[in-house]
């Protein structure tokens, strides 16, 4: 698997956690929102891994919000998921390009564009 390094598409600051690791590499860190609650979400930076950690319980099939921990901007994309029609979430790659994931818990759709 390939490890990605991502940044916010709005403020350009790194979304790589300075301290949290998943799958042996720095985790991607964003703010998760669901049902009026907010919590940190850590995602594996290995493309194709679905390992995540968060103290928030988002039921499978429900859509969550994703925000930049720095500028608080909504990270939703203009693209809809090809599998479930939910909004995709976009992260810019540090060296150019973009990674997008589905905002629906349990949906495995993701896109890597260079």
Summarize the structure.
The chain is mostly beta strands. 0% of the residues lie in helices and 46% in strands.
Task: Note down, in words, how this protein is organized.
The chain has 114 residues and is mostly beta strands. The protein is built from no helices and 10 strands. Strands 1, 7, 8, 9 and 10 form a 5-stranded antiparallel sheet that branches. Strand 7 (76-80) and strand 8 (87-93) form a beta hairpin. It is globular.
Rg for CA atoms = 13 Å
The best one-word shape is globular
Number of strands: 10
What share of residues is helical? under 10%
State the separation between the terminal residues, measured CA to CA.
16 Å
Helical stretch tally: 0
Mean pLDDT: 96
Helix-strand blueprint:
Layout: E1 6-7, E2 16-22, E3 25-34, E4 37-43, E5 52-53, E6 65-67, E7 76-80, E8 87-93, E9 98-102, E10 110-113
Antiparallel strand pairs: 1-8, 2-3, 3-4, 3-6, 4-5, 7-8, 8-9, 9-10
Can you give keywords for this protein?
46% strand, 114 residues, mainly beta, 5-stranded antiparallel β-sheet
């Amino acid at each position: 698997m390939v490890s990605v390094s991502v940044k916010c598409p709005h403020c350009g600051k790194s979304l790589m956690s300075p301290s949290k690791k998943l799958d042996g590499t720095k985790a991607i860190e964003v703010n998760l929102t669901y049902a009026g609650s907010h919590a940190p979400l850590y995602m594996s930076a290995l493309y194709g891994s679905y390992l995540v950690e968060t103290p928030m319980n988002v039921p499978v099939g429900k859509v969550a919000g994703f925000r930049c921990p720095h500028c608080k901007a909504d990270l939703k994309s203009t693209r809809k998921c090809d599998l479930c029609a939910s909004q995709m979430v976009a992260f810019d790659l540090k060296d150019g390009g973009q990674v997008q994931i589905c905002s629906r818990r349990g949906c495995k759709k993701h896109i890597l564009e260079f």
